[in-house]
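step: validate -> pass
step: tokenize input -> pass
step: predict -> running
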Amino acid sequence: MELELVNGTYTPEVLLELFELNFAHLIRYQESKIDTTTEEETISFRENNIKQLQNQWSALQKSLRSQPVNVSLELKAFIQ
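step: predict -> pass
step: emit ->
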């Protein structure tokens, strides 16, 4: 199954807002999983996921803030 989630041209500001919500949700999800376990391996795995998400979000912010014009965005989800 293929889902088209977003398809269009947006200002960098709109994309920053959209992705900020997405990254915040993904980070909260990882944090909630940490709260439900005591296994050190799982906690470490989730903490690494959070760090990776934070790094990706930082890089995306930097990239979008350097864009002088609107940006095309196409997001699809493939479920198999």
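step: describe -> The chain has two helices and two strands.
step: cleanup -> pass
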